[in-house]
Design brief:
Layout lengths: L1 H4 L5 E5 L5 H11 L3 E4 L3 H7 L4 E7 L8 H8 L9 E5 L8 H9 L6 E5 L4 H48 L2 E7 L4 E4 L3 H4 L4 H4 L4 H21 L4 E6 L9 E10 L5 E10 L1 H75 L5 H25 L8 E3 L1 H15 L4 E6 L7 E3 L1 H17 L5 E12 L1 H6 L6 E10 L6 H4 L19 H11 L3 E7 L3 E9 L22 E5 L3 H13 L3 E5 L2 H9 L6 E5 L7 H11 L5 E5 L8 H4 L4 E5 L4 H12 L6
Helix pairs in contact: 3-4, 10-11, 11-16, 12-13, 13-16, 18-19
Length: about 675
């Protein structure tokens, strides 16, 4: 029923010129809900044909007039329109059917006709009308679809025109290449890059457009794009006149709805100015870098000169302090010896002990100063072992209480579960006593001296922030006072040699330097915290070690004499060699002398019996340790005692000494040397 009320093609126009046929038809159709209208003749009917007409219902008699007006009206229909005619014909006799006769007559005018032979029932008629009306509605639907398609084509054309306008306006070469490597789109920029118009590019192969050489440069990138990978290329692309041009080429794959790559978009950008800017910037950076390098070299030279100046100033301070102290000590030694020589020459020997004691004290002071210098320079000979720091401090308590004044309280706080520390026990004792004396002098009005131990774990992060400290466990010995403290500018100098805050004559300025050198040589560190008016805390960090059983069996004070054993003495200093030889002979040892390794090697290679070799470490040419290695080749069990005043390789005994080797540091007391020799020649105890 929709065709009867459609906005277009809903009318039925009727032309039946004889009798009441027209009115009867109108009433029949009106009764079925159709909008039916009657026209007297074919000319009037033709003038009424418009978009509202759905079907033309005519009787055969209506066509007996001139049909020019109808022909003109029907010819004027748009291409999509073909108004259906329902023609009521009269019954005929003979072989020609009525519908065939009518069709033949109207074939040149009406192309869409239904011929019904009268008489016809109302049902058949209305059915034919309905069929024709539906056919007419399909024509309107087709018209609408064609209109939509036309509008779409127009919009697409407008969009393509706009896209091309935009593409042609951009300073970028834009194209599309299909999977056969043929151009399917090209913008106007091809005229500038290839000197070809877009119409001369589209449809041609890439090789044909860019040439064999250009194709070889681009082929790998295009294959990658067809494989679905975005590609970026930078190539030189000079102008035709030879002017420089740098190109950035991008290939962006295009995928269909199924995900297959059917080609790729091409974008080429002129990056000449950008490359020039980058090159200019790189040149400026290189120029600036060279200038900075020159400036840094100049600064490094200036800093090196400053460091050298500071070093020379420190050396001057060091040598000046050493010269001052050694001159005082040598005055005591030389003066005492000179007076003794005069009195012996005069036969006055009753009061010589006083001068001998003065010379001995001055010599021992010189030995102490030398030990401090070696500790500061980290070249002293350390006998590093695992020691119990809590026990060592406990054994020093009485000595420290006698050292400090009565108005200073001593507080010792041993830390719980503190592991053994790896250090030289004698040097650690000296360091603690030095710090205790410094603390005492910093508290002229009294106060509290605290000595405590603890254990810390320094991790990699701390080590990274403090490069001179290795990560690991450390035993910390802290000596703290409540004295006057130090200002920050003084803290920066406390480890400098001969720097002291004490009045002239009350300190050498080597105490803290010795502590620092000892700690660093032991693999540790020293940290000082001080605040004026509050006090100072000095913390010695020493590597933690393992518990080692020690032999505490007391040794006899009397040095046993030898039993005629043979000792090879290798010493380049004649005075030291003389003294050691005389001592050995007094102790009933047989002595063989050699002034250096060259004289000692033939003796060691001979068949002469040798029970012990006593050798200086710092021999001219081959040193004492190298000589010991050669000696062990011929005499594997030969004990070796090294004498050292200073030897860089002997600084850490554990890594210097081999099996059945020992070391004694110059200057030494003759009794200490005799005891060490007797200890090394002592037969091993039975288990």
């Amino acid at each position: 029923m929709g065709h009867r009320t459609a906005p277009e093609g809903h009318r039925v126009i009727i032309c039946a010129p004889f009798g009441r046929d027209a009115e009867s038809l109108r009433m029949l159709l009106a009764g079925q809900g159709y909008d039916a209208q009657v026209f007297a003749d074919l000319a009037q009917l033709a003038s009424a044909i418009d978009a509202s007409v759905g079907v033309v219902l005519v009787t055969e008699e209506a066509f007996r007039v001139d049909m020019a007006a109808l022909r003109a009206r029907l010819d004027a229909q748009p291409a999509w329109s073909d108004i259906p005619f329902v023609i009521l014909s009269v019954r005929r006799t003979g072989s020609t059917r009525a519908d065939e006769a009518v069709r033949a007559k109207l074939s040149s005018i009406v192309g869409n006709a239904i011929v019904l032979e009268r008489p016809i029932g109302s049902a058949s008629l209305t059915s034919a009308i309905a069929s024709a009306m539906r056919s007419r509605q399909k024509q309107f639907e087709m018209r609408d679809r064609l209109s939509e398609l036309e509008r779409g084509r127009e919009a697409l054309a407008a969009s393509e025109a706009e896209l091309r306008l935009v593409a042609d306006s951009l300073p970028v070469l834009i194209g599309f290449i299909d999977s056969d490597l043929r151009y399917r789109f090209a913008n106007r920029a091809y005229e500038d890059w290839f000197y070809l118009s877009p119409k001369d590019v589209v449809g041609r192969s890439v090789r044909d457009v860019v040439g064999d050489e250009g194709f070889a440069v681009r082929e790998a990138g295009m294959r990658a794009a067809l494989a679905g990978e975005p590609v970026q290329l930078f190539i030189p692309w000079p102008h035709r006149d030879g002017r420089r041009r740098e190109a950035e080429i991008r290939y962006l794959p295009h995928k269909t709805a199924s995900g297959a790559v059917d080609g790729f978009h091409v974008f080429v950008l002129d990056v000449t100015e950008r490359r020039k800017t980058e090159e200019e910037l790189e040149a400026r950076v290189a120029e600036r870098t060279e200038a900075l390098t020159t400036e840094m070299d100049s600064r490094s030279k200036a800093e090196a000169a400053l460091r050298q100046s500071q070093k020379m100033e420190a050396v001057g301070q060091l040598t000046g302090g050493i010269a001052h102290d050694f001159n005082n000590m040598l005055t005591g030694v030389i003066g005492a010896l000179d007076i003794m020589r005069r009195r012996i020459a005069a036969g006055q020997i009753d009061d010589l002990d006083r001068f001998m004691d003065a010379a001995s004290k001055s010599a021992h002071r010189a030995a102490g100063l030398t030990a401090r210098l070696l500790a500061f320079s980290r070249r002293q000979s350390l006998d590093s072992k695992s020691i119990d720091a809590n026990r060592l401090i406990g054994e020093l308590e009485d000595l420290m209480r006698r050292t400090i004044r009565e108005n200073i309280s001593l507080r010792i706080v041993p830390g719980p579960d503190v592991p053994f520390a790896v250090a030289d026990a004698n040097q650690l004792e000296s360091a603690i006593l030095n710090l205790a004396i410094n603390a005492r002098d910093a508290m002229p009005d009294g106060g509290q001296l605290t000595i405590e131990t603890s254990v810390v774990e320094l991790d990699d992060a701390y080590s990274a922030a403090t490069p001179d400290v290795k990560p690991g466990r450390y035993v910390v010995v802290a000596v703290s006072d409540t004295g006057v403290g130090m200002a920050p500018e003084l803290l920066e100098k406390i480890f400098d040699p001969f720097f002291t805050t004490k009045p002239i004559g009350q300190g050498t300025g080597l105490g803290l330097s010795m502590v620092y050198g000892f700690a660093r040589q032991s693999g540790g560190q020293v940290r000082v915290h001080s605040q004026p008016g509050v006090g100072t805390s000095v913390k010695i960090y020493l590597p933690a070690g393992q518990v080692i059983e020690t032999d505490d069996t007391p040794r006899p004070d009397v040095v046993p004499e030898g039993r005629g054993q043979t000792v090879l003495l290798v010493e380049d200093d004649p005075s030291v060699r003389l003294l050691v030889r005389d001592l050995l002979e007094e102790l009933s040892y047989t002595t063989i002398e050699a002034e250096d390794a060259d004289h000692a090697i033939p003796i060691l290679a001979s068949d002469r019996p040798i029970d012990l070799m006593v050798s200086d470490v710092g021999l001219p040419g081959m040193n004492g340790r190298q000589l010991a290695e050669i000696a062990r080749q011929n005499r594997p069990a030969l004990p070796v005692l090294f004498l050292t005043g200073y030897a860089e390789n002997a600084a850490i005994r554990a890594g210097f000494l081999g099996t059945n080797m020992a070391m004694i540091t110059k200057p030494f007391a003759m009794d200490a040397l005799a005891g060490k020799i007797a200890e090394m020649l002592e037969p091993p105890r039975s288990a």
